[in-house]
Write a structure and sequence with these properties.
Elements lengths: L1 H9 L13 H12 L9 H18 L7 H10 L2 H10 L1 H5 L5 H16 L1
Helix pairs in contact: 1-2, 1-3, 2-3, 2-5, 3-4, 4-7
């Protein structure tokens, strides 16, 4: 199942990250929405891993110090992918619900992407 694969991916190399298990519900929801759209068939496990990896990378980039360029790059990437942006926006509350340390950083990144779309 997508959630199990997303969770096992989260326990991979990134398991030591500051987000840790608190990001798993968010990651599962995002993977589920992007890889298993309503009315869709069976998902490709490789696609699930790729989406989970991309979301984890965005979380990592968003958490870079403000003096770095990670948050800017993540916002640019999200602005270029409106579907991913909307799915992250729809599920960001899960980061807060599970006390994920990166919740504020990804929220600011989402806002930065939305600002870019308004330009």
């Amino acid at each position: 199942m997508a959630g199990e694969r997303a969770e096992s991916h989260e326990r991979g190399p990134e398991a030591g990250s500051e987000e840790g298990p608190s990001a798993v519900p968010f990651l599962q929801a995002v993977v589920r929405q992007l890889v298993h759209p309503p009315g869709g068939g069976e998902a490709d496990p490789a696609r699930e891993r790729a989406v989970a990896g991309e979301v984890l990378e965005l979380l990592r980039m968003a958490r870079e110090p403000p003096s770095g360029t990670g948050r800017e790059r993540a916002a640019e990437r999200l602005a270029a992918d409106p579907v991913l942006l909307s799915v992250l926006f729809q599920n960001v509350d899960l980061l807060y619900e599970h006390a994920c340390p990166g919740a504020d950083a990804i929220s600011l990144t989402i806002l930065g992407a939305l600002e870019r779309l308004e330009r």
